């Protein structure tokens, strides 16, 4: 059956704990993504910053206060943590520290259950403890729409995906964070956002040039603003 390695986005943008909130917001907008893993100097994930974290931080500018009964029921540690999160200036201050992760061999069905159970939009993918990718709800939906996730992935399909991803990584005009590739029986399905029809054509050409590709299905859309992945 399909696993995280078959659908994950591999070109993951990360931020250090000391990055300012304003710079994080700029990254989210520029790359049209809704969350960024926070990684320390040793390459370990220490948290994740999402749009929700930044929205909560922005609301603090109006000094929104809790209802009296929520304050009454919350302990001092919770109140202190909420204050730091809403008034903080860096990734470390505002990030969610309880990060749900999966490995590259985690089945998609298990990932879907994790996203549903924890009410989250994405999970970082680890291999030998190191970050190798990220799976979002969009990745799962794209896989479900084009493949039978219960069926083992054809070795050739896996090779096609790896070769195409490697080719696109080497191209300066490709924003892989906004793209996803799913391969089923030699058919390459391209998902994500493109900034121009030239980019759309170039992506199709790149896919068609990979050995073993039988056809290319274009599911991409032109970018006209933000994105929620």
Provide keyphrases for this structure.
229 residues; alpha/beta; Histidine-containing Protein, Chain: A; four-stranded mixed beta sheet; three-stranded mixed beta sheet; 41% helix; 20% strand
Describe the structure.
The protein is an alpha/beta fold. It has a domain at 154-229: 2-Layer Sandwich (Histidine-containing Protein, Chain: A). It is built from 10 helices and 9 strands. β3 (102-103), α7 and β4 form a beta-alpha-beta unit. The radius of gyration is 19 Å and the shape is globular.
Short description:
This protein is an alpha/beta fold and 229 residues long. Helices cover 41% and strands 20% of the residues. The chain has ten helices and nine strands.
CATH topology of the domain at 154-229: Histidine-containing Protein, Chain: A
Question: How much strand?
Answer: 15-25%
What gyration radius follows from the Cα positions, in whole Å?
19 Å
Order of helices and strands: HHEEHHHHEHEEHHEEHEE
DSSP helix fraction: 40-55%
Look at the helices and sheets and give the structural class: alpha/beta
Extended strand count:
9
Which outline best applies?
globular
| Average predicted confidence as pLDDT | 83
What's the tally of helices? 10
Tell me the major beta sheet: 4 strands, mixed
Uncertain runs are 66-74
CATH architecture descriptor text of the domain at 154-229: 2-Layer Sandwich
Assembly state: single chain
What is the CATH domain class of the domain at 154-229? Alpha Beta
């Amino acid at each position: 059956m399909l696993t995280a390695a078959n659908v994950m986005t591999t070109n993951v943008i990360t931020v250090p704990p000391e990055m300012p909130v304003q710079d994080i917001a700029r990254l989210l907008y520029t790359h049209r993504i809704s969350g960024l893993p926070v990684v320390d100097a040793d390459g370990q994930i220490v948290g994740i910053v999402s749009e929700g974290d930044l929205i909560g931080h922005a609301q603090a500018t109006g000094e929104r206060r809790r209802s009296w009964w929520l304050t009454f029921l919350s302990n001092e540690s919770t109140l202190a943590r909420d204050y730091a999160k809403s008034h903080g200036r860096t990734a470390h201050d505002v990030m969610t520290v309880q990060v749900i992760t999966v490995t590259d061999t985690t089945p998609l069905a298990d990932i879907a259950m994790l996203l549903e159970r924890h009410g989250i939009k994405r999970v970082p993918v680890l291999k030998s403890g190191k970050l190798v990718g990220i799976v979002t709800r969009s990745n799962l939906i794209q896989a479900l729409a084009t493949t039978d996730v219960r069926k083992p992935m054809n070795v050739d399909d896996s090779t096609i995906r790896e070769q195409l991803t490697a080719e696109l990584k080497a191209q300066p005009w490709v924003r892989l964070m906004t793209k996803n590739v799913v391969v089923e029986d030699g058919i390459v399905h391209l998902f994500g956002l493109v900034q121009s029809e030239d980019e759309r054509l170039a992506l199709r050409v790149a896919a068609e040039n990979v050995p073993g590709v039988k056809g290319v299905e274009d599911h991409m859309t032109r970018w006209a603003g933000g994105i929620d992945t």
